[in-house]
Design a protein that fits this description.
CATH superfamily: NAD(P)-binding Rossmann-like Domain
Helix content: 40-55%
Number of domains: 1
Strand order of the largest sheet: 3-2-1-4-5-6-9
CATH architecture: 3-Layer(aba) Sandwich
Shape: globular
CATH topology: Rossmann fold
Strand content: 15-25%
Largest sheet: 7 strands, parallel
CATH class: Alpha Beta
Order of helices and strands: EHEHEHEHEHEEHEHE
Structural class: alpha/beta
Number of strands: 9
């Protein structure tokens, strides 16, 4: 049984990595998919074809998540194109590791614009289109709870902010039947963070399971939250991190 049959989902930054895995999993669960992308039109077009190959409708919209107007327009376009909006996955993010002394004001502004402001802006736009059963799911990070090495202060701060946003939105949108949740992935094998990268063995060793996640494992949890099966989960921060924070 397809658990998201007939739903429409927007995944920000859905052309690669965890976002792409989520887009494909939700398509397999029966949802029509809209992805946003910042720069790679070719990669986004390939994702659209992969989604269509699974029998679902798909749309890719260019939008820099640091620009609120572009992000709001992308969400509105998704709802207008497919006639509804049921699921939002706030996935797009900037990952910057830098010593405190080297952080510039532009580094701080860009990270907070994409990692903190954009999820709130997209959630605000999506909630206008959602009815009962709507789902807002944000992608956090294992380093929101544990910063295992120096240089993570800015990124960790940006992902920790999503905990407060999730709790606040869950309380505000709960009476409308909309759930809001946060998923904290652990180290995950993607092109940006490969499981065979230079520090991967050390990072994998920080998890209880001793390995990186596959992006499909993160997507599976998001699919559960997005479906009717997740209807009584809201305001939660779920760690899908192989025991990184234990």
């Amino acid at each position: 049984m397809k658990r998201c049959e007939g739903n429409v989902a927007v995944i920000t930054g859905g052309s690669r990595g965890i976002g792409a895995a989520v887009a494909l999993r939700l398509a397999e669960e029966g949802a029509d998919i809209v992805i946003t992308y910042e720069s790679s039109a070719e990669r986004a077009a390939d994702m659209v074809e992969q989604i269509k190959a699974r029998g679902r409708r798909a749309l890719a919209v260019q939008a820099d998540s640091a620009v609120p107007e572009a992000l709001t327009a992308a969400v509105d376009e998704a709802a207008a194109t497919f006639g509804r909006l049921d699921i939002l996955v706030n996935n797009a993010a900037v990952f910057l590791v830098s010593p405190l002394d080297d952080l510039s004001p532009s580094d701080i502004d860009r990270t907070l614009a994409v990692n903190v402001r954009a999820p709130l802006v997209a959630s605000q736009a999506a909630a206008r289109h959602m009815g009962r059963g709507g789902r807002i799911i944000s992608i956090g990070s294992n380093v929101a709870d544990r910063a295992p090495f120096p240089g993570l202060a800015l990124y960790s701060m940006s992902k920790t902010a999503l905990v407060g946003m999730t709790k606040g939105l869950a309380r505000e949108l709960g009476p409308r039947g909309i759930t809001v949740n946060l998923v904290h992935p652990g180290p995950t094998d993607t092109d940006a963070n490969p499981a065979d990268g230079p520090n991967a063995e050390t990072i994998a060793g920080l998890t209880a399971l001793g390995r990186y996640a596959e992006s499909t494992e993160i997507a599976a949890t998001i699919a559960h939250l997005a479906s009717e099966d997740g209807r009584y989960i809201t305001g939660a921060s779920l760690h899908v991190d192989g025991g990184f924070t234990v």
